[in-house]
Amino acid sequence: MSATLNISAPESVVVHFEPSKLRMTRAEFYEFCKLNPDLRIERTSEGDLIVMAPTGGKTGGRNFILIGAMDRWVRSNQTGKGFDEEYIANGAELGWLIDPLERKVHVYRPGVAVEVLDDPETVSGDPLLKGFVLDVREIWD
């Protein structure tokens, strides 16, 4: 299978596949990503593709702060791993959706309603990420 996709819109695009008719193997997905090196491409647990436009400077800076803080904690604590998307459905026990435009943090946990924090200064990972506190004021700026 070989395909390319050009996207000019700044939003993500979800490409749905009917599982019984078309599904990329891992090797085909790898080749698809190689053919489109400028795109951020993920595959969902259902086999759909999510194609996202590259982040801009401000978003990239926010991501850098967040990933750096999480990386420091993961390396010092050594009790888990950090990821970035639809992971609750695949077994993750905690997820944060950080919305810097609305200054909200949506906290996802399995079996619990989504908790929305309105303009918090910090977000705690306790009890799962014992001792990890993210200072979101850096991300708001």
Structural features, described:
The chain is an alpha+beta fold and 141 residues long. The protein folds into two domains: 13-52, no CATH class; 57-140, tt1808, chain A (Alpha-Beta Complex). The chain has helices at residues 26-35, 57-77, 137-140; strands spanning 13-15, 40-43, 49-52, 95-99, 104-108, 115-118, 122-124, 133-135. It has a three-stranded antiparallel sheet with strand order 1-3-2, with no helix packed on it. A hairpin with a 4-residue loop joins strand 4 (95-99) and strand 5 (104-108).
Give a quick rundown of the structure.
By secondary structure, this protein is an alpha+beta fold.
| Tally of contiguous helical segments | 3
Question: For this structure, what is the CATH homologous superfamily of the largest domain?
Answer: tt1808, chain A
Percent of residues in beta strands: 15-25%
Could you tell me the radius of gyration in angstroms? 17 Å
Q: Architecture of the largest domain, CATH level 2? A: Alpha-Beta Complex
The number of distinct β-strands equals: 8
Q: How would you summarize the topology of this molecule?
A:
Layout: E1 13-15, H1 26-35, E2 40-43, E3 49-52, H2 57-77, E4 95-99, E5 104-108, E6 115-118, E7 122-124, E8 133-135, H3 137-140
Antiparallel strand pairs: 1-3, 2-3, 4-5, 5-6, 7-8
Give a quick set of tags describing it.
3 helices, tt1808, chain A, 8 strands, alpha+beta, 2 domains
